[in-house]
Amino acid sequence: MDSLAQKKAAIQPYLRHQPGTQPSSLYEPYRATVLRSPRKPLVYLPHTLSEVTGPVFGWEGIAQNDNDLTRQHGGEPLGERIIVTGRVLESNGRPVPNTLIEIWQANSAGRYTHIKDQHPAPLDPNFSGTGRTLTDEHGAYRFVTIKPGPYPWLNHHNAWRPAHIHFSVFGRAFISRLITQMYFPGDPLFAFDPIFQSVPDEKARQRMISSFDLETTQPQWATGYRFDIVLRGPEATPCKT
Amino acid sequence: MDHVPTPSQTVGPFFHFSLTTAEHCIGCIAGPLVPGERVWLQCRVLDGENVPVPDAMIEIWQADAEGRYYSEADSENAVDPAWRGFGRMATGEDGICKFETIKPGRVPWPGSGLQSPHLKVAIFARGMLKQLFTRIYFANDPANQEDPVLQRVPQERRETLMAHMDAERPGHWRFDVHLQGELETVFFDV
Ligand SMILES: [Fe+3]
């Protein structure tokens, strides 16, 4: 049997999430979940090729400044210049090379360029707030951007989102696909944000918070934040303790 | 570090200018040169009050007409500019998005046997803290009778996984996703 046939015959199941480490579809304090969450039980599916395969990227164009959101226009955007870097790993520790990461965010005033954003804060003609890159052979990525501002929303009275950058990551399998948000350390809005609080497990919540990193920080230029992303991967063989 | 997966968070209402711009949405999963039975698929997303969801994103992953996925686990030709098998579109105000593709072939079931032709679907939206996974099958395909996944779904709910062809327009299929309610679509715990 050739190696491909072997791979197809023996599908390594992917890790299933431990309770509390992911949000539930329904989290009432985040009001929009009430009508957009299923109420019937999900049907358990063993993993087949349909689940453990996923799209491959790399041959289509990533433009030169797609990973530097401060150089996509004629001038420099206003705000605090930051470097955001980290690695994409599978739950078994294996790095994920050549995977597509897409990010989008508000500008330093807390305003998105999105047509439906009504927050009365200024747009910045030099900032679109969207970027993309592929991880390198070690699973590492790097963006240069502006620290986004917090912004209000209508979920409840005086609701504000903590500053965040939206991340979309593919990984190797359709079921490893992750869309999440990266937060900044010490944000006073965490305690009041139902989206952040929707993750029950305290330690799991902390994994969405980037860490300030002096090594990434560049003198006279930009502060640095590290944000590692872990995707579901094939189940590791359990090791004895 | 430990290796517990990073938690999911909602895609929110403002993803369009990044994920589904004209350049980065993929409505055409398979162009006219890709061999297979042509499928024009219209998907609609509805909430628990049957109101169309105007800010959802649907992603589709599928095999080619031979039942092969272009992925390192299933193909030596994983990188092929002409065929990837992946699509993604944002819904419009009417909760609808459209794809052009081909009907996939049958994909092996682990061990032995074959699955019936199906598309893998992930749905993202504001108000959804994580994506929901479902599958689209093609109504009246005889292989549905022996599909091992459909057999795991309670008989009375299997219909929610069926796309239906428009009798007047051959090749045009419709699929409704009901996020909640009496007609709630079957979502899978994968
Ligand atoms: Fe946001």
Provide structural commentary:
The complex is a heterodimer of chains A (241) and B (190). In chain A, strands 2, 5, 10, 11 and 12 form a five-stranded mixed β-sheet that branches. Chain A has four helices and twelve strands, in the order H-E-H-E-E-E-E-E-E-E-E-H-H-E-E-E. The mean pLDDT of chain A is 94. Chain A has 241 residues and is mostly beta strands. Chain A has helices at residues 3-9, 49-52, 194-197, 202-206; strands at 43-44, 81-90, 100-105, 130-134, 140-146, 151-153, 159-161, 164-169, 178-183, 211-212, 223-226, 229-231. Chain B has 190 residues and is mainly β. Chain B is built from one helix and nine strands, in the order αβββββββββ. Chain B has an eight-stranded mixed β-sheet, with no helix packed on it. In chain B, a hairpin with a 6-residue loop joins strand 7 (162-165) and strand 8 (172-178). The relative contact order of chain B is 0.21. The model of chain B has no long low-confidence stretch (mean pLDDT 95). Chains A and B meet through helix 1, strand 1, helix 2, strand 3 and strand 9 of A and helix 1, strand 5, strand 6 and strand 9 of B. Bound molecules: fe (iii) ion. Fe (iii) ion binds next to strand 8 of chain A.
List the helices and strands and how they pair.
The complex is a heterodimer of chains A (241) and B (190).
Chain A (H helix, E strand, L loop, with lengths): L2 H7 L33 E2 L4 H4 L28 E10 L9 E6 L24 E5 L5 E7 L4 E3 L5 E3 L2 E6 L8 E6 L10 H4 L4 H5 L4 E2 L10 E4 L2 E3 L10
Parallel strand pairs in A: 2-11, 2-12
Antiparallel strand pairs in A: 2-5, 3-4, 3-8, 6-7, 8-9, 10-11
Chain B lengths: L15 H4 L18 E9 L9 E6 L24 E5 L5 E7 L15 E8 L6 E7 L23 E4 L6 E7 L9 E2 L1
Parallel strand pairs in B: 1-8, 6-7
Antiparallel strand pairs in B: 1-4, 2-3, 2-5, 5-6, 7-8
Fe (iii) ion binds next to strand 8 of chain A.
